[in-house]
Amino acid sequence: MRVSVFGLGYVGCVSAACLASMGHEVIGVDVNQVKVDLVNDGKAPVVEERIGELIAEVVRTGALRATGDVREAIMGSEVSLVCVGTPSEPNGSLCTAYLERVTEEIGAALAEGAKQGGRHTVVFRSTMLPGTCLNLLVPILEKYVGGTAGVDLGVAVNPEFLREGTSVRDFFDPPKTVIGELDRASGDAVTALYDGLPGEVFRVPVPTAEAIKYADNAFHGLKIGFANELGAVCQALGVDSHQVMDVFLADRKLNISPAYLRPGFAFGGSCLPKDLRSLVHAAQRADVSVPILAHVLPSNSDHLQRAVDLVERTGKRRVGLFGLSFKPGTDDLRESPLVEMAERLFGKGYDLKIYDANVSLSRLLGANREYIESRLPHLAQLLADSVDEVLEHAEVCLVGTRDPAVLSALPHGDGPVIVDLIRLPDAEARQTEPGYVGLAW
């Protein structure tokens, strides 16, 4: 394919050189004439493993050249990759000035009729927040071109997952390829660019592709911060943190796995809250600052409050709660987030009915009974004997269980407002219903 790459920094330079080495005809574009001259001389404008040799080779064969002329680049390509920077503003917000400028230049070049023949596809590879492409950049293109994105020109978002220092290696052996496609033809054009590379390809809506890069980097930062905080606590307690993490990393069922990484409701139970409190307390006694660990429980509490806020926004007072124990298939109520939510709603004066097939007040014993009597002493009068009893009572139903009897009875359309805490199996279909509200979807 004939490809233009806008921005010859780390991402653009590597993308241009690697695509050229795959057999594409690539034109690099940059406002900095020094970078343009370096590339045309077969030299890399960035320091990166293997990039010098790669650029020298693809420039020598004629597969890559560079220019500062946007019109020339658009005329000579059918796909444009936008790889300009999106730095932080002083207040932490995303700076889109470079994105907007290059989008305007591409749109103007297309409008001048510089592109002859088939439809041109503009692919945004720069990191940008969800909504940036559709709400900011697409309108700019459509304004200049005088056409409709997805019809008269292609648009896609293609985030990169290149680590500085190993970016060439990462390009040819990517962890995944993500293509946010405005329409099928746009996605096809991007897919063709990477034909032959390993790794799974995800073709998703544009906002999803924009969000994925942030999910990756936020988690990477969280992992590093978690490891460092745990290491500091272990050192203060005289424990070898690397031995601890060796064992931690060996658990591929719960620790290094998809476990616990699906958005849903707050956590609870007899272990997680208690152990987090103990660890944070031990760190404080040892004068070790652990802001990540110290904010896990407050974050959990805030997420629980979001569910309460959803109920309050309905303006309705009769509430049904499906599920009470902290985990399905158990009657353990200790530090259950559903108990906490019931307590908050009851305390605010809501008329509450609760159904959990595994919870019977007469069967609760020991610490479990003591806990519920201290937190929700009125439980006996709140518990319902059946799903139907709750449905008949409630104007708002909070669903915190996957009990088949509950799921099969939940109405569609007219009926109580459904506040989904677990992402119901039919959540996508229900999202079009006015009485459905999902938490953290």
TrEMBL record:
Keywords carried by this UniProt record: Alginate biosynthesis, NAD, Oxidoreductase
What's its top-level EC category? Answer: oxidoreductase
Quote any Pfam family the record assigns.
UDPG_MGDP_dh_C
Q: Which residues form the UDP-glucose/GDP-mannose dehydrogenase C-terminal domain?
A: 320-427
Q: In which pathway does it act?
A: Glycan biosynthesis; alginate biosynthesis
The record's listing under InterPro entries reads:
6-PGluconate_DH-like_C_sf, GDPman_DH, NAD(P)-bd_dom_sf, UDP-Glc/GDP-Man, UDP-Glc/GDP-Man_DH_C, UDP-Glc/GDP-Man_DH_C_sf, UDP-Glc/GDP-Man_DH_dimer, UDP-Glc/GDP-Man_DH_N
Instruction: Report whether Cytoplasm shows up as a keyword of the record.
Output: no
Q: Which PROSITE patterns match?
A: PROKAR_LIPOPROTEIN (PS51257)
UniProt cross-references to PANTHER family, sorted A to Z: GDP-MANNOSE 6-DEHYDROGENASE (PTHR43750:SF1), UDP-GLUCOSE 6-DEHYDROGENASE TUAD (PTHR43750)
- What family does the entry list? Belongs to the UDP-glucose/GDP-mannose dehydrogenase family.
- Name used for this protein in its record: GDP-mannose 6-dehydrogenase
Q: Which organism is it from?
A: Streptomyces purpurascens
What is the phylogenetic placement of the source species in the record? Bacteria, Bacillati, Actinomycetota, Actinomycetes, Kitasatosporales
